[in-house]
Specification:
homodimer, 296 residues, mainly alpha, Farnesyl Diphosphate Synthase, two-stranded antiparallel ribbon, 14 helices
């Protein structure tokens, strides 16, 4: 733990990339094109925050590395698929992602739709495999949890609300609910996956869920802050996109200072809740702080 | 079995629709819109061929009805998602499906993309639930099988090949391979799901796989024949679409008579392989014949 959190995240990110690289094996022929697009998205880096949360949560319960890496890779596949589909012209219409052309720009729209579908599908294949966990009950709990977090009660539902909200001004309760579904549900599952793999008791699961809900919201507030304060180079995409479009954001509703304070207190609450885990939870506390201090 | 196959299929189709209706419960608020679109697609009827194959295969092994209906509903969710995404402007750009506007026309493109994503995700949620099968190993085998059949080694891969082939002329081997992935893999899984639920032995599984491969190919040939011979009213979509676009079809490569003969001999082979199951397999034989005799 002597190492800085961003170094630890980079190293874990490399492990996740290697896991994804092995899972998304290139194929010859025309079929290979969709896998190429999936690899373009999934191997392009990013912070790997969600799989890091899975790895750090799993470490609390001494889960063996391979299972945690595979569960983290499945979560990252879902995250990448959501970015590919969100970037499509009919959705957010974003040409850039992580400093380079988004998938439908680098390939084409049809390939991007299929690449998203392929990643979404493969996430469940990865979780169903015995290499993720020997115990079938654990694998099923992971699959059930990931499907709920990603579906209409989670990410897909949140994205629908987000699109519907384009023509109305949301209040704080409404954008908090939106965030909970659109990004919160998957972040929460990322933490819960570690607890599932580690057969954690109910108390530990509740503590982790509480942590995840708080950092999930803080993450979104930090995103809104970066959208106002960040530079294009840091973000790898145009800044000010959300404020330009008159979209309700936490910064708009709380003010710059208010948003910073809210994010700070959420992180404090997240870390306080981890006390029962003792020094083992230091890594998760560091991620929480990283989330609000990051510059991209 | 005294009843005609189309009547039996209609009744089973109603059961599947009722199952999907219960699984896709409407929700209030903006989130409800994506569920509405999922219901628009999944409850709109269609032949329900794939779930019927699951029910008929499951009946060979006396599987209890609820599990077979849920597995069939999961397969149909995957089928419906694939139709929604295939109809999108960036893919086949089809405005009509089953005699009414396709999802992106009845709703909008963004909602259609999300509705497809939602159905794909929920299929795995349905299979992971204990109501599908008490035995965790059975549920995991269903999930693994469905994800492979739907992903880059199956449906998604086949769709990618299909798109890439728009500018080249495929030979018989190539369109057979394309069909195997694009439609064959899911039809094969539909039959295999019954065997998985029924803990069938290897011999029975092989017999069913052989049946499924043959009817899958026959189904595609019958589709190509309908595209040439059918009327718009029968199909619920414009006819002659494939031949207009200079696309390689089985009819083009084999001729009308050759295609009819090929479909007939595949069905014969499919039925012959079911002999070991005895009279119980009558239903599956009837479906096989229905596939080539249908007029829509």
């Amino acid at each position: 733990m002597s190492d800085a959190i961003d170094n630890r995240m980079r190293r874990a990110g490399d492990e996740i990339t290697a896991t994804l690289d092995a899972l998304l094996a290139p194929a010859p022929g025309a079929r290979g094109r969709v896998i190429e697009a999936m690899r373009y998205s999934a191997l392009s880096g990013g912070k790997r925050l969600r799989p890091y949360l899975t790895l750090a949560s799993a470490a609390l319960f001494d889960v063996e590395r391979q299972g945690a890496l595979r569960a983290g890779a499945a979560v990252e596949m879902i995250h990448c698929y959501s970015l590919i589909h969100d970037d499509l012209p009919a959705m957010d219409d974003s040409d850039m992602r992580r400093g380079r052309p988004s998938v439908h720009k680098a390939f084409d729209e049809a390939t991007a739709i299929l690449a998203g579908d392929g990643l979404l599908t493969q996430a469940f294949e990865v979780l169903a495999h015995p290499d993720t966990a020997e115990d079938p009950a654990i694998r099923l709990e992971l699959i059930a949890g990931l499907s709920v977090a990603s579906g209409t009660a989670g990410m897909v539902g949140g994205q629908m609300i987000d699109i519907a909200a384009e023509n109305e001004v949301l209040d704080l309760a409404a954008i908090t609910e939106l965030q909970k579904l659109k990004t919160g549900a998957l972040i929460e599952f990322s933490c819960r996956a570690g607890a599932i793999l580690g057969r954690a008791d109910e108390t530990s699961r509740l503590a982790l869920t509480n942590y995840a809900v708080n950092i999930g919201l803080a993450f979104q507030i930090a995103d809104d802050l970066l959208d106002v304060e960040g530079t294009k180079e840091q973000l790898g995409k145009p800044v000010g996109q959300d404020t330009d479009m008159d979209k309700a954001t936490f910064v708009k509703l709380l003010g710059l200072e208010g948003a910073r304070n809210k994010a700070g207190s959420l992180i404090e609450e997240a870390c306080d809740g981890l006390a029962p885990f003792g020094p083992k939870a230091g890594d998760l506390m560091d991620v929480a702080r990283f989330i609000v201090e990051r510059r991209s």
